[in-house]
Every structure is written in structure tokens, then in C-alpha cells.
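Much of what follows relies on a compact textual record of a protein's fold. The record below shows the convention in full:
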Amino acid sequence: LDVTILYDTKVKAVNTGKISSGKESITQLRTNCGVIDVPKGVQVLNAAGAWVPHLMALMGVYAPVYPLKGYAMSVSANDILSKSKNLKPEDLPQRIVSDKYMYTSRLGDEVRITSVGEFSGWSTKPTPPVEAEFREEAVRQFPQLEQYIREAKTKCGHRPYVSDGILLLGRVKEFDNLLVSCGPGSNGWKLAMGSGEIVERLISGQTEDDISKDLGFDAHSFSPAGRVRHSPLFAKLCRARW
């Protein structure tokens, strides 16, 4: 299939219309780069991470998704080994290392250390006491890398967290062409492929009952029904607060 990726494109408004079934149907996305028409029969997937509720609110819909600020730092394995005569490749993490505080992964040359989930609105600036604790925990787990951990830059990003901790995954019942996939929090890598398969099956015409039968679990448990609600007034209040 052909894929077109539009960079630096922000959805500013969503045009919808009623269809014969009484449901809404998305017809246009209005962006800072112009209008994107949504032809009849085309499905729209909202997978905008922590910004899912922002897009939903443009349609008068409330989604219980919140930005969970995650902390991360990266150090270069090659840089460490070139500067330190005392460290050998086997002294560095070679695979995923995790405990209840830290999650470290090796991505080629990069040793990536992550931890902490902080509710801090939409700020992506590290909170000094939290950042200090993050570094201390990283040093505790990898004391041989203390010098490089102290020097590494901390980066923060938003993890989409659903209020009940369960994925929002499926069709939004008020619309005939809108699906949502959101809410893994810090488990995005673990759940991405499975979530993608469910979305593909739904777009291809399968029902949640079909998926449950084929895959052996209750796909209804992830449904946005009852959690994502059409609530124009509350959506407007959320937009004003953001």
C-alpha cells in the first residue's frame, strides 16, 4: 500500500456529518497545511499518544487519557569504551535490564535508561528533585557508569496513560469511521504489534467477537465503549483548560 507521511501537520478542526444510521462520519481534517478530505468508506485512526484527547475534543468527544511524564537518558557505549580503560564491552548492558525502578535497553551503540512516571501537566521540563532521584537510581543500578550518568542529559516525554490503566483500542461507537489506539503508558513497545493487529482486523471488517474467537482473548475488554464519550460541553471545558 502507498503511504503518505505529512510532517509538521497539526489538526486544527474536524468536520463531521450525520449518516443514515444516525452516527457521525468524519469528512474532513482541517490542518495548518490545508484541508484533508476523508472519502466515504475511509477509516480514521486516532493514535496520537498523549494528544489523543486533544483530537477527540475537536469532535466533542471526551477520552480519559493523561500525559504521564517519563524520564530518559542515553549514553554511548562506544564513547564510554573509548574513554575508559577499565571498562570492557561485557561491563555494559547487553540486553534489557529492569527492576521496579528502572528500565534499561541496549539499542546498538545507545544504552538507554528510563524510569519514573510523573503527572505534571503538559510540561516536558525535568522536575529537579525527580531528576536527581532518577540519576541516583541509575547510578545504583550501574555504578560502573556513574561518571557518564552524571553527565548525560535527561529528556522527558509524555506517555499516554488511560485513567483505568487499560488500553483504549477499538471503534468509537458514535462514529462510523473512527477508531482509537491509545493508553499503553510505559508499555508501548510491548503492546504495539498486538494493538496494530487488532486495528488492522477491525479496519478489515472483523468484529470484536471475530477477533476474540481467532486470538483467544476478549477483545471487548479494550473497547473504548463506556470510556470514550460524546460530551461536547466537557470536551470544550478540557480544550479551554489545555
In short: DSSP finds seven helices and 13 strands in the chain. The first strand starts at residue 11 and ends at 18. The helical segments are 52-57, 77-83, 128-141, 146-151, 188-203, 208-215, 232-241. The mean pLDDT is 92.
